[in-house]
Amino acid sequence: MLGAPAPNIYGLMTPPTSPTKKRNLHGGTFNLHPCLTEAGAAHVHYHLGQALQSIQFRGAPNPEAILCQSATDTNVTTLPIHLSFGPEIHITNPNGVQVGDVFHQLHVELSRRLSAREMAGAFAGPSQGPPQNTRMLDVIVATPYFAGLTLRGNSWYLQLR
User: Where is the DUF6699 domain (predicted)?
Assistant: First the structure.
């Protein structure tokens, strides 16, 4: 056929059939797994200071199966999550970010000890100084339970309850 695009033997689309919109990996153009959303987090019971084995999914007979599912409906290898109280966390997995990767990396990042610079910012003002071995969780809230990720602009933000 004259004028029709040549078949592509490698399985990739060729112009003019290529999509014109690229996926934004900072949020907005893909959907999160339901348990990671603010609405779905009502069925998740997880204290971010505890080990991943303590996570509970209400009504789920096999929590391990949920942790192995993709975190998004599009396979992404990096999922940036913003913290309103600290640095951005990049959840990464070269094979695609899974639900368990998100919970594990949030736990690791929020449980780590603050650097001297971070402690100076967290404990600004007249005081006797920050306690030694302060974790990020110690600074942010009294009970850091996962309450979902919400989309603000093109970025995902961690919600705590």
Answer: 45-120
**What does the domain layout of the chain look like in residue ranges?**
34-160
118 CB-near residues (< 8 Å, 6+ apart): 86, 136
Closest C-alpha to 52, from 64, 36, 69: 64
**By three-state DSSP, how is residue 79 classified?**
strand
What tokens were used for 92?
């990464």
Predicted confidence (pLDDT) per residue in 26-76, tens digit = 444 689 999 999 999 999 999 999 999 999 999 888 889 999 999 999 999
* Backbone CA torsion sign across 115, 121, 122, 123: positive
pLDDT, tens digit, 9 for 90 and up, residues 71-113: 999 999 999 999 877 778 999 999 999 999 999 999 998 888 7
Report which of 135, 29, 44 is spatially closest to residue 79, judged by C-alpha positions. Answer: 29
In the numeric block, the tokens 């919600």 are attached to: 159
